[in-house]
Design a protein that fits this description.
Length: 287
């Protein structure tokens, strides 16, 4: 399905009913909006695994501005605040009330942006392998720790000169395999619609990856939150997630560290991740 939001058209898909028949009543189900990684990827990485949540929530998959099956957009609008405001406008257009927003990796940056710019919109937030702020040096150091100085140098080259010959390809070849312990599913990789230009632009020395900072908004966010993070995540080192969790409201924030895991926690411990999310949905709905 497609919907016009501001100056663009976004693609979305839905699994699960919004209203469920229970005896004489129609009971409204929680809505979970899934925000994918990237930028420059699409929602396909969530399928089919997250469809398992459709028995406890209505699950909405959204391809963000300029990505996946959404319309191409002007490069000047490839900005976090625009992606954030698009999600808020999407909820308004479809009259989605108090959704739980689940952001994975880059999608988590957008989720933290929603907590900052539109805190009253959300009924809850689930953050997978993400943080409200990132710095380059700890990321490079973690890649080097996991696989040696040459891999750290490949990461540094991509972050410093992503458009240089071979920099992006070197990152894909040497760094991305460290995102998980198990090999990536080739079918998942084949399904992903990727925009390399958007990826590289975001990671440029002047790009938003180095400058975005939603820490203040995250600290002020009062709705239920679940943060799940791999202990040895190289692209979003756990210190950034730990700092965010420590600053957020202790009564409404749960921080789950998965020992030994890296960035792609669903690849290696999908059943555990879904168990944590499922329990959180039930708790948030009850509140």
């Amino acid at each position: 399905m497609r919907i016009r939001i501001d100056d663009t058209v976004l693609y979305f898909d839905v699994e699960g009913a919004g209203l469920r028949a229970e005896g004489p009543c129609m009971v409204e189900q929680p809505t979970v909006i899934l925000l994918h990684g990237g930028p420059g990827f699409d929602h396909s990485m969530f399928k089919p695994a997250y469809g398992a949540l459709a028995d406890v929530a209505q699950v909405i998959y959204l391809d963000m501005r300029g990505q996946g099956r959404s319309d191409p957009s002007d490069r000047g609008t490839w900005l976090l605040d625009r992606w954030v405001d698009d999600v808020a406008a999407f909820c308004k257009a479809l009259e989605i009330r108090k959704p739980i927003v689940l952001g994975a990796s880059f999608g988590g940056f957008v989720a933290y942006g929603l907590a900052t710019r539109h805190p009253d919109l959300l009924g809850g937030m689930v953050i997978l392998s993400s943080a409200p702020h990132i710095e380059v040096d700890p990321v490079v150091a973690k890649f080097a720790e996991l696989s040696g100085p040459s891999v750290g140098e490949a990461a540094r080259r991509f972050f410093d000169t992503p458009f240089a010959d071979g920099a992006f390809e070197g990152f894909i070849m040497h760094c991305m395999p460290l995102y998980g312990l198990a090999d990536a599913d080739p079918d998942v990789l084949a399904r992903v619609m990727m925009n390399p230009e958007m990826v590289s632009t975001f990671f440029l020395p002047g790009g938003e990856w180095r400058s975005f900072d939603y820490r203040a908004g995250a600290a002020a966010f009062a709705s239920p939150s679940l943060i799940i993070h791999g202990e040895h995540d190289p692209i979003v080192p756990i210190a950034f997630a730990s700092d965010a969790a420590a600053a957020m409201h202790p009564a409404t924030t749960r921080f789950a560290i998965l020992p030994g895991l890296r960035h792609d926690i669903m690849r290696d411990e999908g059943a555990k991740v879904l168990e944590l999310i499922r329990a959180f949905i039930a708790e948030a709905a009850a509140e």
